[in-house]
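Q: Hi! First time doing this. I have a protein sequence and I read that you can turn it into a structure. Is that right? Here it is:
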Amino acid sequence: MSQELLTIIDQIEREKGIKKEILIEAIESALLAAARKVVNIKSDDKLKIELDRKTGQIKAFKNEKEITTIDFGRIAASTARQVIIQKIREAEKEVVFREFQGKAGEIISGGVYRFDKNNIIVDLLGKAEGILLKREQSPREEFKMGQPIRVYVVEVKRDTRGPQIMLSRTHPNLVKKLFELEVPEIYEGIVEIKSMARQPGERTKIAVRSKNEKVDSVGACVGMRGNRVRNIVNELQGEKIDIVRYSDDIKEYIKAALSPAKVSEIKLDKERLRAEVIVDDDQLSLAIGRHGQNVRLASKLVSWELDIRSKTTVAVEVEKEKEKEKGKAAVLAKIPGIGEKTLAVFKESGLSSIEDILKSDIKGLTKIKGIGKKKAQQLIKEAKKLASK
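A: Yes, that's right. Below is the predicted 3D structure, encoded as structure tokens:
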């Protein structure tokens, strides 16, 4: 048994990659537990089992003194078998875990193995099973048993039953990795993916920039006659892909992000990262997209809030604002002592309504050209009268 045991241990080390010392220590530990059942020991006794690394001979020691009364033949055979089986299982799980942990963030190929309620269990090259949860499945896609499938590895978790390999077909990085596989310029780092926004099964917008002036970033991604991007669209079963040229000029970047719509004017609020985008009336629905999809993805792509307005809407709002200002000025003109010149001065000072006067105090009004303390008091008094009506 001794030499046979060492031969088996050596074989397992070669075939399964489990270190010999780990197996020997596990067998010693198991034999120690078995020996405790057949050896009378006190609470303060020290029992020790040693498996000779050269001869395979098993020895037992009680308080450093060898015990010769234990028959390790039968015990060793069954114990070693159980330990080896257990260690092989643990090692195989660990090998699978390490292999697929290294694939996290990558695309791997597999086959649809079975369906578990709404989830899909994927056979990964016969080495392991991955799970594609319902929420990680594109609403556009349908798969059948045995069908080949490419999936993005989100994460690999340890579990008592073995590694849990979590997969996705909706992750934005799935599209990114597909571009890396399909476009050599991206894989080589010549073309850089700056940003992505995706609505799985519907549309993806991807912003790219070339690090080489001689290489057109968009053209590289589209490919000859559109074959590169077409291959990715086919892989995603018809999901639309907009390839956008990245620009450091935020206005140009926003215009590109909102394609295929054409933009007429952009007003920026850099503090709030907000942009008012004005388009021709016939471009409004295109800019917004179905259920707001185009503007939503464009906003996410550029990381700015985008407010889409048509020229007609803007013109109507401007006219309304003018009428509103005229109305305020007309009410303001009812205050005794306020003529056209005073109204003009007020407008320059930011006072366009009775409410503006009431918000100001005497000190503030006297700063306005031609307004003294008495006139300021009178203005506030008359403004209060009009406001109470």
